[in-house]
Design goal:
alpha/beta, Leucine-rich repeat, LRR (right-handed beta-alpha superhelix), 32 strands, elongated, glycoprotein, receptor, non-specific serine/threonine protein kinase, phosphoprotein, protein serine/threonine kinase activity
Length: about 500
């Protein structure tokens, strides 16, 4: 009541007219309000300012942490390697050599292939590079292990640390990289088994683990990689069988498992890989027969099954592989005859069946392979005569028929093979004379006809083979004199006539 009256009077108060407590109450109350407002304003201002600048500050800290992570890794590398990264300094890390950033200046690419880096990955804090999409450190001198922390790079689509000196095991955490499309750990010193967690990488199109020292079996989980196009595990110490689950890889175009210690048979399911272009399983311990289902691989251009323990006959279905350019089955235990269906392989340039136990005659249909440059049927049990149709193989440079039981005469048509460089017919049961048409083979370097039952004289036309370095005619029934024309063979190194 007193306060309201004082405000209404609007008179300058005097000590006599104003009660004693009124002025003290008003003064104290006003001062409290003023002080409160003065104190509150900076807090409100500070709070608004912090809210407005939180995001840029966080971004700055994030950028700094990425730069720090990279600089720390640089400092952990050997001295000469640090000089290769001289641009990694106090400037913006997005301008550094090998670094790629997105619009928010976050590191997305780390590409330092083939620059000679020497050091380990242990000094690189992957947790501070959460936006990394591509990591390429291939063809350097990086050693040590692959850190398990690499599994935290959830955005990574490409990981290439091939051609280094990495050792130890492939960490199971690799299976956490679910965005991964390309994984290349090839040409290192990695040991241990392929982790089953690799089956989690459903987006993977490329898996290269070749030329390491990996052991154990190929995990069934590989069959879960249904996007896979390229699978190369060659030159390791892998054992066990080829998993049937491989049939799920319907997009696979390349399957290289050679130079391991794989055993068991080639699974029938391999015939389901209809996109396959190259299949190389050579130099393993594979047994059993070649599955007829292989005939389903109509896009196949290369088939290498040599240096195994395969048995049984060559299936007729091989003749269905009309895209095939290179067929190599040597150094196995194959029996039976060479199928006539082989004549369908009109694109074939290389055909090698040597070092088997094949029998029967050389099919006439072989003469239909007009693209052939390399024909090797040596060291088998082939009988019958050399077919005249062989004269159709005008592109042939190598013809190996030695170590068989071939009989009859050398066909005149052999002289049509004008591209021939190496002709070996030794250790057979060939009879008759050496055809004069052999003089047409002007590119011939090696001619071995020894250890047969050839008769008649050595034709003068042999002297026309001026590129010849090796001539073997010994252990035959040849008669007559040595032709003077043989003196034309100025490059001759080896001459066997006895």
């Amino acid at each position: 009541m007193q306060r309201l009256q004082l405000l209404a009077c609007r008179k300058k108060p005097t000590m006599a007219s104003v009660p004693k407590r009124a002025p003290n109450f008003l003064a104290v109350h006003s001062k409290i309000i003023f002080v409160f407002v003065i104190i509150l304003i900076p807090f409100v201002s500070s709070s608004d300012s912090a809210g407005a600048h939180a995001s840029p500050t966080t971004q700055t800290v994030a950028k700094q942490s990425e730069a720090v992570a990279l600089l720390n890794w640089k400092a952990s590398l050997e001295y000469q390697s640090q000089s290769l990264l001289s641009s990694w300094n106090e400037t913006s890390h997005c301008t550094w050599v090998g670094i790629g950033c997105n619009d928010a200046s976050k590191v997305t690419n780390l590409n330092l292939d083939s620059i000679g880096l020497r050091g380990t990955l242990s000094g690189l804090n992957f947790s501070l590079l959460p936006h990394l999409v591509k990591l390429d450190l291939s063809n350097n001198l990086i050693y040590g292990t692959i850190p398990s922390q690499i599994g935290g790079l959830s955005r990574l689509t490409s990981l290439d640390v091939s051609i280094n000196r990495l050792s130890g095991r492939i960490p199971s955490e690799v299976g956490m990289l679910r965005s991964l499309i390309e994984l290349d750990l090839s040409m290192n010193n990695l040991i241990g088994s392929i982790p089953t967690s690799i089956g989690n990488l459903k987006n993977l199109t490329t898996l290269y683990l070749y030329e390491n020292s990996l052991s154990g079996s190929i995990p069934q989980e590989v069959g879960m990689l249904k996007s896979l196009i390229y699978l190369a595990l060659y030159t390791n110490n892998l054992t066990g069988s080829i998993p049937a689950s491989i049939a799920n890889l319907r997009n696979l175009t390349l399957l290289y498992l050679y130079k391991n210690s794989l055993s068991g048979s080639i699974p029938q399911e391999v015939g389901m890989l209809k996109s396959l272009i190259s299949l190389a399983l050579y130099t393993n311990n594979l047994t059993g027969s070649i599955p007829p289902s292989i005939g389903n691989l109509i896009n196949l251009t290369l088939l290498y099954l040599y240096k195994n323990f395969l048995s049984g006959s060559i299936p007729q279905e091989v003749g269905m592989l009309k895209s095939l350019t290179d067929l190599q089955l040597p150094a196995n235990n194959l029996t039976g005859s060479i199928p006539a269906s082989i004549g369908n392989l009109r694109n074939l340039t290389t055909f090698r069946l040597h070092q088997n136990s094949l029998s029967g005659s050389i099919p006439q249909e072989l003469g239909m392979l007009r693209s052939l440059t390399d024909l090797q049927l040596s060291r088998n049990k082939l009988t019958g005569s050399i077919p005249a149709s062989i004269g159709n193989l005008r592109n042939l440079t190598t013809l190996y028929l030695h170590y068989n039981s071939l009989s009859g005469s050398i066909p005149q048509e052999i002289g049509l093979l004008r591209s021939l460089i190496d002709l070996e017919l030794s250790r057979n049961k060939l009879t008759g004379s050496i055809p004069a048409t052999i003089g047409n083979l002007r590119n011939l370097i090696t001619l071995y006809l020894d250890k047969n039952s050839l008769s008649g004289s050595i034709p003068q036309e042999v002297g026309m083979l001026r590129s010849l370095t090796d001539l073997g005619l010994s252990m035959n029934n040849l008669t007559g004199s040595i032709p003077a024309s043989i003196g034309n063979l100025r490059d001759l190194i080896t001459l066997s006539l006895l």
